[in-house]
Amino acid sequence: MSQLRASRPQREEMISCAHKLAERAWVANHDGNLSLRVASDRFLATPTATAKAAVSEGNLIEVDPTGAKLAGSARPFGELAMHLAIYAEREDVAAVVHAHPPYATALACSGSTIIERPFIAEAIVSLGPVIPTLAFAAPGAAAVQVLRASAARVDAVLLANHGVFTWGPSLELAYLRMELVEHLARIATLAQATGGVQPLPESALPPLLAARAKAGLGKAADRALEFAPAPVVACAPAPHAGIKTISPSSPRESQLADIIREELSKLLR
After folding, report:
1. CA 202, CA 187: separation in Å to the nearest integer?
2. Domains of the chain
3. Rounded mean pLDDT of 115-119?
């Protein structure tokens, strides 16, 4: 078996991220897994049957796009196909993190959708307008299919009766997105005692989505306006995004779209 090709900084970042998951109690036992694209046909990954606190230089592995091991002495983890499905769907993604942070996982296991529409402005920019909860699917091909169906449109998902997946153009951003999902879940859970979180006004979303599209956060972010759920009006796309606009269905909507386009044009100058 050949040696790892990932650079020392890449290996050190992977180890550090795995240890952080354990330190923050976002994983238990052998839960969770991480991967990092180190070449078009090669991925660094954490090993199976290993506590994240015990991930080290000696047990990291590398695999090809089919999941076959290329380097390292440990075995690949069972959910690797889910990571590879995201990479196959999103060539802009360089890292995937899967964990079971308690607040977000509690929502995923209860069927709650209270963070499906992020309610903090910064979260819209980082995560987009939707954090979907995907229906439970048995581990294996069914789970891969469910996850891959959403990978193009979002950068974070809750998996019913399972946990959370996040991804991004770097391991740092994939980890930070996991952190933000858990932060939102904790806030929403605490807010239940005082009536629950209130959604952002619809008028606030287009400028935030335009900022997301402009920020260079990956393909889902580039297409944030296109993927925004109704009734957000798609407008002022990022110059490189190639976004399709939604045609207004009434004169009132057309007028609203014109107003929003004008305001966003001022914002983006």
Report:
1. 21
2. 8-194 (3.40.225.10), 202-268 (no CATH)
3. 97
